[in-house]
Amino acid sequence: MYPFKTNRTLVRDRWYIAAFSHEIDRTPMERTILGLPVVFYRTEAGKPVAMHGICPHRYYPLAKGTLRGDAIVCGYHGFAFAQDGKCVDIPSQGTASGFCQPTYPIEERGPLCWIWMGDAARCDPELIPPYGDFGMDQPGWRTSSLNYFHLRGRYQLLIDNLMDLTHLPHVHSHIPGGEAMSRMALREIDDNGPYQLVREGKLPWTPFSDLMWGPDTRYDGLATFESHTAFYGPELIRTGMPIFTAIEGHDRVPPELGVLHIMHGITPETATTTHYFGFSTRNFRLDDETLDEFQLNSDRHIRQQDADAINAVEERLETAVAFQRELLVRADAPAVKIRQKVQAMLDAEGARA
Ligand code: FES
Ligand SMILES: [Fe+2]
Question: Which of 12, 105, 127, 137 could lock 118 by a disulfide, CB 3.0 to 4.6 Å apart?
């Protein structure tokens, strides 16, 4: 299935963001992940639980049930399942049963809950992307603008979108400087860490920079900057605002020009739909709620523009692919490289299955 050689397109042996932490509470919530319905809730002690979301009795959604202590009680005939999935009550018989409903490991880290739905033998929390890399939950950094989007498009379309910034002046035409961003020299770093793309270019000060860094940091002339994109896996990509390295006519870059990472959590819902978790981290203006507000709204608007483009592509993707081959150009090289990396993950999982 496009864009892969295999029909199986979902990589299962990854930690995916299942939910923002605030979405999971004492009211059961269902979300389909990797094609399977999962019910989420918290125990009385506050621990998140992820359990297969369909009752094994008559297949009623468990999310329509209620919580009794740490167990979830099905809303149809009252079967109860403990947090580890054990069936602890069948009211019509007045007994428990030996049955165990599947549950999934879930790791809560800061504002994110990660789920592992792959091979249990390979599950290792160390495989969660390293927060230190993007300032999450780190001293001197602030996380903001948590935004959730539902995409009516396959996850690979979002990866393609993020790896190729030539869409900036077209999809996000309200952002000044997009033209420059889309024509920059590209350098890739492909060693043992995440696959990284570094774009280098020059930008004049724009009203957008004013809003982001504040009018005190305004400059004349051109600034040299780098923009980094890092692919941690199909589940997480980091992009960001430009990092200024030099400003024409200035001896140094004003310290107020800090780093803002824009994070993209990508969780397949089904083979053709995706949960998109957006958030940002920054190391400047930490207590500035005006910036939080600006960032939240700007980010919501920008990500929605990408979501709209992806939804439009998916709508007729199968017929489009059947009609003609895609016309790939130089700017597509990083996205194609990522496809190869993901294909290799799929092949490895296929070989183990
Ligand atoms: S369907 Fe859940 S108890 Fe019957
Ligand atoms: Fe975009």
Answer: 12
